[in-house]
Model the fold of this input.
Amino acid sequence: MHTLTTSLGKTAKALALAFCTLVLLNACIDEDEYDNTPQGNFEALWRIIDEHYCFFDYKKSTIGLDWNEVHAKYAPRVDNDMSWLQLFEVLSDMLAELRDGHVNIYTSFDTAREWSWHENYPSNVSDTLIRRYLGTQYKMSNGFRYRVLDDNVGYVRYASFENEIGAGNLDDMLTSLIECRGLIIDIRNNGGGLITSAEELAARFTNKEVHVGYIQHKTGKGHSDFSEKKKQILKPANSVRWQKPVVVLTNRGVFSAANEFVKYMKCCPNATIVGDKTGGGAGLPFSSQLPYGWSIRFSACPMYDSNGQCTEFGIDPDIQVGLTERDFAKGKDTIIETARRLINRAGE
Done:
């Protein structure tokens, strides 16, 4: 397939274009067409998702999703005599059929969510063990907690991409760990945040431009109406870059922008992904509103890995390993210890 190329540094422009396209499409949905009744709100939600959600083809092939069948299943549960709380429950159940953590309804009393992507799996992370490895003398900077372990391996705990990452913060952290044999970046249970922050961190682990994936945006109301895929190119940082082995620790709680970070690191030369499969979340989310005023969020722009494969349902690690009860009883984190062995063997 012919592809257009875009750097990750131009992601904001690509997203702005996608957003403008989505706004134009949403303008075609006149919310006044639907009465502000339970049935009207049900039909409005079903239609908005039908015309703008981005993973219908993928989820039909993977989980057998048929959105028309979903309508037929849930429409009989809605009538205009039901309460708004009862409607919320029906709409939440309907959206759960998408199996997408980026799909939500926001109300004053609750948020509809679908978290089976991590709730149905072992957590493979322990805050108690992480505190043991960090100790009390770790350094803190802009969400990063880091220290040098007793075998001269650098350990970095980063629990969220929610905030912007400063170049100076990364320079100082990497410089302070420069004498280490290698680096562990623990992003387990990192639910995502800013893709620009994921890019900023990943750019410290490559010395040349790397093709890391693709992105598309919707161009019409049909389930298969998309733009051509645009290449995502990770550019190396202009400041301190890490040249030694780096191991990224993952579990099912790694989602959205954190999932993207793993995708980028998969393409970096000295990186190894260790732990469990990520939770996924490969669609950029956008928002709309129902006649009743409830806000809805949904995946609108699909992203793919460098092979053009969808990562909506997660990314496999290079080395699959989970926490064991035996190690936990000894106060050891199986996943961290695996990463340490990899780094120490690389230095022999």
